[in-house]
Amino acid sequence: MKQLLVFLLFAALFCWLMFSPIYKHVLVIRQALLQQEADYLLEVGASGRYGYIDGGMVAESRKRLEGYGFQASSLLYEVASTSGVEADNAASPLPRGIGIRLRITYPYENLLNIDRLIGVEPPSDDARIAGGGMKMSEYVPSR
Fold first, then answer.
1. Per-residue pLDDT for the chain (143 aa), expressed as one digit of tens each?
2. Within a domain: residue 29?
3. How many domains does the chain have?
4. Does 42 map to a domain?
5. CB contact at 8 A, 111 and 76
6. Which of 10, 37, 61, 137 has its CA 20 to 30 A from that of 75?
7. Are 88 and 55 in contact (CB under 8 A)?
8. What spatial distance separates the first Cα and last Cα of the chain, rounded to whole Å?
9. Is residue 142 part of a domain?
């Protein structure tokens, strides 16, 4: 009986040691992709040409991330400005010097459930990984 218990514990630990790094790499890659996409959207949106991040830019971003395996419906985008003015309105771009904040979040999707084998509790179902940042608008209205 002891041998069976030792075998089961060893098998569980062995499975965790083999597969946990793979899931952790997937998590790291997902977070890096979210941060890369947030940086790109901020660079484009805060440029002198736009001064906003509108729904069209967000829709294109969803398509790009969907190409990497994300579920587009699970992605949440939060766009705001440092002045409190809408940062997603193409009709009134943010003038130079006002910051545009962007945060993209995505659920963990049970990636870390294998950690239960060693007694580590995975993140809750509503926990999300995120990428984001802030960039000052460079938009100058033409006269």
1. 888 888 888 887 777 777 767 778 888 999 999 999 999 999 999 988 899 999 999 999 999 999 999 999 999 999 999 999 999 998 999 999 899 999 999 999 888 877 777 778 888 889 999 999 999 999 888 76
2. yes
3. 1
4. yes
5. no
6. 137
7. yes
8. 85
9. no
Q: Is residue 100 part of a domain?
A: yes
Output the pTM of the full model: 0.82
Strand order in the sheet with 128-136: 76-81, 99-107, 128-136
Q: How many CB atoms lie within 10 A of CB 67?
A: 9
Say if residues 31 and 125 touch (Cβ distance below 8 Å).
no
User: Which domain, by its residues, includes 128?
Assistant: 2-136
Question: Residue 125: helix, strand or coil by DSSP?
Answer: coil
User: Which pLDDT value is given to residue 43?
Assistant: 95
Q: Which residues contact 75 (CB under 8 A, 6 or more apart)?
A: 61, 62, 65, 104, 105, 106
